[in-house]
Amino acid sequence: MMADVIAVVLLLAIAAYACAGGTDYGAGFWDLTAGGAERGKRPRWLIDHAMAPVWEVNNVWLIFVLVIMWTGFPVFFQQLFQSMWLPLTLAAVGTVLRGAGFALRKPARRLAGRRLYGAVFAVSSLLTPFFLGAAAGGVASGRVTADTKASDHAWAHPTPVLFGLLAVATTALLGAAFLAADARRFGAPDLDGYFRRRALAALGVVAALAVLTLGVAHEDAAHVWHGLTHGVGLAFVVVAAVSTLATAWLLLRPSGGWSRVTAVGVVASAVIAWGLAQRPYLVPTSLTVAEGAGADTTLRWLGVVTLVAVVLVLPAVVLLYWLDTHGELEGLTDADLRRGAGDEG
């Protein structure tokens, strides 16, 4: 029973990281595709200002996922990192390089340095979600097993590749939806339209890839396909579909911030649908939740730690997100500092 509860916590943490971290990855995707220095100047200006207050905080969800996985489900953790070592290693390297590139490109004095760090940030923002998605696809297709030998091509199959592409597309959707709302907050209507058009395009790609992935899963991940087309898994698929339609409608008109909510609904419901479709397995159809779980005492203490985190950490993170999306975390500009000095004088 406790193993099932911790498994649900793990799934919700993955959904939270897919939405929060995915928004940041999506901003990096649009940074990569913004064009040359002159053409991409304003989009990149918005991306820098929008990401600065929260990009480090979003990695809290990834840490939470890893802690729950290796503590609560050590057998699953071992099999996953043995079978999918290459995509997970590349994702880890991408996460580090991405953070370094974003942190260093703004203070870099030379144009060549800014371009180098910017390229590292943008390319890593594309590759990291792809490889994380590919690893998830390896789980969904049952390729993460105790018998799977560590190799560099275990992820190179239809379902993992499609999961990777779907991960990139969903991050692009989230990034564009949030950036469009930020453009309205910063009083930049041209960037509002710029990112709403890109969010609509990304939404179309997400819908197409989702249908294609579902079709491929019928043969390559039969257990997950059955779970997505029946019962509670199907219910969340329907929620994702309704959220997709609502997002499209909101993006076609000046919608305030509601398109962000529905875009998050698309991604969160899709992740939850995938997790519930695997029941009762961590890895279909070779490792159940009970078989992959740690000792009962460990699970109970992990439940206590999770409860403490929900009470102490979650409200602080939610407050931070609220302050950021309402423009309460804007940094001081040179003009602000000069005005403050003049007032004091």
**Largest sheet geometry:** 2 strands, antiparallel
Total count of helical runs of at least 4 residues: 14
The beta-strand count equals 2
Overall mean pLDDT stands at 87
Distance between the termini: 67 Å
- SSE order, one letter for each helix or strand: HHHHHHHHHHHEEHHH
Q: List low-confidence stretches.
A: 332-345
Task: Note the beta-strand portion.
Answer: under 5%
Give the % helix: over 70%
Strand order, biggest sheet?
1-2
Shape: globular
Question: What is the SS-derived class?
Answer: mainly alpha
| Alpha carbon gyration radius | 21 Å
Précis, in short:
By secondary structure, the chain is mainly alpha-helical. It has helices spanning 2-32, 41-51, 59-72, 74-83, 85-105, 111-140, 158-185, 189-220, 222-228, 231-251, 258-277, 289-292, 296-325, 334-344, and strands at residues 281-283, 287-288.
Overview of this structure, please?
The protein is mainly α. Helix content is 78%, strand content 1%. The chain contains 14 helices and two strands. The chain has helices at 2-32, 41-51, 59-72, 74-83, 85-105, 111-140, 158-185, 189-220, 222-228, 231-251, 258-277, 289-292, 296-325, 334-344, and strands at 281-283, 287-288. It has a two-stranded antiparallel sheet with strand order 1-2. It is globular. Mean pLDDT is 87; it is low at 332-345.
